[in-house]
Write a structure and sequence with these properties.
This protein is α/β, with parallel strands linked by helices. It is built from seven helices and six strands.
Length: about 190
């Protein structure tokens, strides 16, 4: 059984653009490549889990989402990053959905397909639904990044986040996860 890090896309890996649909609008946060590389090199499998309600709302297509994801994957591949799989829920919030966060379904799917140990895995995002997705799946820890909507969420609902780890961004996520796991091995 392998550990994994599940990552929200918009606001976590890349700048929040409010219904991003064009690859040329992708802005990867500083340090994302280095942080992900450290996690990958330490043996963590990397996955993206993303709600893309713009598809369900009719703002853009699944093909647009695929182009953005391919661009992001290509850019991070320059740092040696490989995502095992990108899971996305294209439904709008009011539409039935199997995997729309906070549902843990995509984490369960990844566990079954890739032989993952969710109890030693992590969920990272900038919204409460990201954290809830991880909690619902039984991951070791859900981690809130202050990028995207994270800082606002932290300021507005600190009591809701007591179970979460809160860090500035992906470099600090890697530092925290690797530091925790190093302590557990000693």
């Amino acid at each position: 059984m392998k550990p994994a890090v599940f990552l929200d896309r918009d606001g976590t890996l890349i700048a929040e653009k409010n219904y991003l649909s064009r690859p040329e609008d992708v802005v990867i946060f500083p340090g994302v490549g280095g942080g992900l590389k450290r996690l990958q090199d330490a043996g963590f499998k990397l996955f993206i889990v993303s709600n893309q309600s713009g598809v369900g709302r009719g703002y853009f297509t699944l093909a647009d989402v695929a182009r953005v994801n391919e661009h992001l994957s290509r850019e991070l591949a320059r740092d040696g990053i490989r995502f095992e799989k990108i899971y996305l829920a294209p439904e709008a919030p009011d539409q039935p959905s199997r995997g729309r966060k906070p549902s843990p379904q995509f984490l369960f799917d990844a566990r079954d397909e890739f032989g993952l140990d969710l109890a030693n895995s992590y969920m990272v995002g900038d919204k409460l639904i990201d954290l809830e997705c991880g909690w619902n799946a039984g991951v070791k820890k859900s981690i809130l990044v202050r990028t995207g909507y994270g800082a606002k969420l932290e300021a507005e609902t600190p009591a809701t986040l007591k179970r979460a780890v809160i860090v500035d961004g992906l470099p600090e996520v890697a530092e925290w996860i690797l530091g925790l796991n190093a302590k557990l091995k000693t």
